[in-house]
Amino acid sequence: MKSFVEIAAEIARESGAVISEFARRRVGFELKGTYDLVTEADRSSERLVVERLQQHFPSHAILAEEGGAHDGSSEYRWYVDPLDGTTNFAHGFPFYNVTLALERAGEFWLALEGARLLNDRAATLLDDAWAEDEALSHELRGDTAIAIATAKVAAIKGGMDVTTRMFDVMGARSTTGKFGFDRYWRNLRTHSSHDPVDYKLRELGDWALNDVAPVPTFYS
């Protein structure tokens, strides 16, 4: 049985042949917004890709750039940019491709939900530690520090993964500056740089291997 990647590659090559034929004929283009172009090559490529995906994976949902959503009953969803690089194509520059991405429902949500639960646990321990005031024990302070470090690492690593991989899902056009989607990655990277995750990982490793709680610092 062929893998998702093998089938997607076959579909992309078949769609690419269709686009190449349009390129040979030098078809015109039209605007679908202030700056975005669309050609008959986009539409023909998308029709073929959607048709092939539905033949191979009838239960999968599909979200295609030109034609919108096609509902499915499974946990998988395909994202289709039938001609990634329409502006280049329309002006005769041979730098464009067919983009297909497959998402398994819940991966992004799982990373964020896991970080949220760890943050909730850290916040509860912090409240408990704060309530102890000067009676705070070494053990509770250590448990709280470990919970905070764990939550921070999970949030930063999960967040960086999501804010990077979301462009794989949305396609190359989503990187256009006017949308500003890069701000999520940039903001998270800025915050994480002030208290590097590597410091927290070192503390977590020392605790896991040597049962040594983090030493209080300006950051902790």
Features:
220 residues, alpha+beta, Butyryl-CoA Dehydrogenase, subunit A, domain 3, 2 domains, four-stranded mixed sheet, 7 helices, 6 strands, 14% strand
Textual characterization of the structure:
This protein is α+β, with helices and mostly antiparallel strands. It has 7 helices and 6 strands. The protein has helices at 4-25, 40-56, 86-90, 107-132, 138-170, 182-194, 197-210, and strands at residues 29-31, 37-39, 61-64, 68-70, 76-84, 97-104. The strands form 2 sheets. It has a 4-stranded mixed β-sheet with strand order 4-3-5-6, sandwiched between helices. A two-stranded antiparallel ribbon has the order 1-2. A hairpin with a 5-residue loop joins β1 and β2. The radius of gyration is 24 Å and the shape is elongated.
